[in-house]
Known about the structure:
Blueprint: H1 3-7, H2 23-34, E1 45-51, E2 59-61, E3 69-75, H3 81-98, E4 102-106, E5 109-111, E6 121-129, H4 147-150, E7 151-153, H5 159-169, E8 180-184, E9 188-194, H6 204-224, E10 229-232, H7 235-238, E11 245-253
Parallel strand pairs: 7-8
Antiparallel strand pairs: 1-3, 2-5, 3-6, 4-6, 8-9, 9-11, 10-11
Amino acid sequence: MNLYEAVYNRKSVRHYKMELLPQEFFRNLRKFEQGLQSFAPEVHYSVELVNAMDGEARVRGMFHVKAPYYLVFFSEPGKHAMVNAGYLLEQIVLYMTGHGVGTCYQGAAKAVGLSGPAGMEPVMVVAFGYADEKLHRESFLAKRLPLKELCVFKEDSTEELRLILQAARLAPSAFNRQPWRFVVYQSRIHVFARQEPFPLRGKEGMLWIDMGIMLSHVALAAEECWRDIEFARKETLAAKGMRKGRYFMSVLLN
Length: 254
């Protein structure tokens, strides 16, 4: 199962077998990480792994899921640092899904006593390990809004465009809020961040992590269609906005 296929099968796993993963998995994971595609290449980051099998788990927090392993993503601050974190993390999560390993984003969790490289801060924790529940889920079972509620179509859409939008639709988000909305033309998608009526206190960064996760799905689907895309911000659109949303970025299909 490749990353694009995993988009349609991945689900959050909240129950894990407290079993070790083989060392070969971690060796292959590190090799995969070396080839990750960044949203913001100028932002440096680090991926640290926590083995909780010794009974001294260093991950705590609200909605904490007990798992044999945790991945802690560190990033230096910078423009689009949170978007970049979500963009990179989702590639890792989908890789794990494709290799029989369950995952669950831990938005409110903290890695206690774990320090990253100098100048970097912990951004997100992901629980992972062998699932003690169903690992995969059929895409039609995903609790997601239909495209007609996420998109405003300004032009007739192509089959490729709908495939890309379906992949974006399936992206996970905090509390499944799906904070993205799209204004769609045949060669471009304008992305808006939905204004939440009850925003998560102190969690502005979570919104941008979610947007990065969604954009990683867009990129994977475009690659599946053999289409080149470009992420660009159109400042002329920033002032326009849309109902209950603010302009974030545009996806240009070449």
